[in-house]
Amino acid sequence: MPCPLEVPDGLMFGKWKYEMPNGSPVFIAFRSSTKKNVQYDDVPDYKDRLSLSENYTLSIKNARISDEKRFVCMLVTEDDVSEEPTIVKVFKQPSQPEILHQANLLETEKLQMLGECVSRDSYPEGNVTWYKNGRVLQPVDGVVVINLQKMVDRTTGLFTMTSSLQYMPTKEDVNAKFACIVTYYGPSGQKTIQSEPVVFDVHYPTEKVTIQVLPQSSTIKEGDNITLKCSGNGNPPPQEFLFYIPGETEGIRSSDTYVMTDVRRNATGEYRCSLTDKSMMDSTTITVHYLDLQLTPSGEVTKQIGEALPVSCTISSSRNATVFWIKDNTRMQTSPSFSSLQYQDAGNYVCETTLQEVEGLRKRQTLKLIVEGKPQIKMTKKTNTNKMSKTIICHVEGFPKPAVQWTVTGSGSILNKTEETKYVNGKFSSKIVIAPEENVTLTCIAENELERTVTSMNVSAISIPEYDEPEDRGGDNSEKVNDQAKLIVGIVVGLLLVALIAGVVYWLYVKKSNDAKGKSEKAAAQNFPSLPRQEKLFFFVIGVVVCIIFYCLVIHAK
């Protein structure tokens, strides 16, 4: 503390003193201006704490609250004594406030002690203010009750401030931050120190129950696992619930989850859950989607060619299903229908159906259709363009695939080995090339597990021209050949009818001539020898015509 007085001329000495509360002085330091020596009075509170400089500035170490006094600087000359006081104020910053005796939890609609805000070692005394989420908590009767206590340490003179807060929380106080702030005064003015914020666990009763279906999928199908989860909006949340299952009159007591595995379609219905006291309830509807497919017949089916086979694919589902057929890995445009089975109808059929709205719901059944048939043979022949050989083809149908053998009766050279075409839809052909030196007979033998079929064909010598039968071209060509055969038969039958009519007419003519009585015996005798010659000529012509017709029939048959 600098001495507020100017050092006068003729100064003898200077002194410092302080005033007691009753006004009496207590001298604490003396300095002579001539001898330059310093003396400190025997005052226990200031022992070893004082220092007086040459310009009469007084320093006090280790300031205490008790140092807050009125100090006076005295300068003495022979003629005068001058005095000037200095008032000392002492400040002590309080410690950071702490919230002690915190409540373990807070319950709504109940006034509870939240905690105590304590700030120690303050001078002068400070003030405590409570905050929630940064806003000042003002006292409200029955809701916010604040009680502030200030205690002073008699030894140090420092103050300890304790502020208790009673509070009635609401649901909105979940995660609210409570803090307290100490306001105190220092040499530079008013200052504040804030405590660490505290969040309390606020308990409140359940007001609503909610049921959920896990996993949260838009669709559920047969075979899925379902978890029902029931929750209440209270804190702490309820730990037990009653689950009501369709068809069950009593609730099933369980934790907050109820698991159903491998659900079936009969699990469709309304599900409910409630608190154990049945005070609150929520419900949800579950639809278990299903898809059934019945293929008739199914598996491996063996039928004979030409038989009928009714096939049905029946669908039963919770929604409209899409049905399609696949044959040998190729999607079909229409459903299969077999009124007369053919070899090309054989194969692996799949009836498949899906529910497009339900992921993973797909069903399929298979039908392996086997079409069997006894071997059927048709033989054709043709003279090759070089006129040196003939090709004989044996057209074979049947399943299982027949084995083909050839036999030759007669003299002829087989120019190459037997060749077979690819077996497709129960059909194939075997070909042999021969150069017959004379008329020969070729026999085609086809045999499978069902039957052995033998067909023979006469083949003329290579030097004899003959009718070459066309290969089986099927369809229109067969009809064309049949029409030609009908035409030939019609011509032959017509010629026979013409010959018959001519014979009848001639017989009538002869009879009429014999019955004529009015002619003379001479005329009869003269004319009679001519009649046998006419008859002989007529019957000769008729015989020739019949032979020609018979020859045509034989050639056509071959």
Write the layout of secondary structure elements.
Elements: E1 11-19, E2 25-32, E3 38-40, E4 50-52, E5 58-60, E6 70-77, E7 81-87, E8 98-100, E9 106-107, E10 112-122, E11 127-132, E12 135-136, E13 144-152, E14 159-167, E15 177-186, E16 189-194, E17 198-199, E18 202-203, E19 209-214, E20 220-221, E21 226-232, E22 241-244, E23 252-254, E24 257-260, E25 269-275, E26 281-286, E27 288-289, E28 291-296, E29 299-304, E30 312-317, E31 322-327, E32 330-331, E33 347-354, E34 362-383, E35 390-399, E36 403-409, E37 412-414, E38 419-420, E39 427-436, E40 440-447, E41 452-459, H1 476-514, H2 521-527, H3 530-557
Parallel strand pairs: 9-18, 20-27, 29-34
Antiparallel strand pairs: 1-2, 1-6, 2-3, 4-5, 6-7, 8-10, 10-14, 11-12, 11-15, 13-14, 15-16, 15-17, 19-21, 21-24, 22-23, 22-25, 25-26, 28-30, 31-32, 31-33, 33-34, 34-35, 35-39, 36-40, 37-39, 38-39, 40-41
Helix count equals: 3
Q: Termini, distance in Å?
A: 156 Å
Extended strand count: 41
Q: Characterize the largest beta sheet: strand count, sense, and whether it forms a barrel.
A: 9 strands, mixed
Helix- and strand-based class? Answer: mainly beta
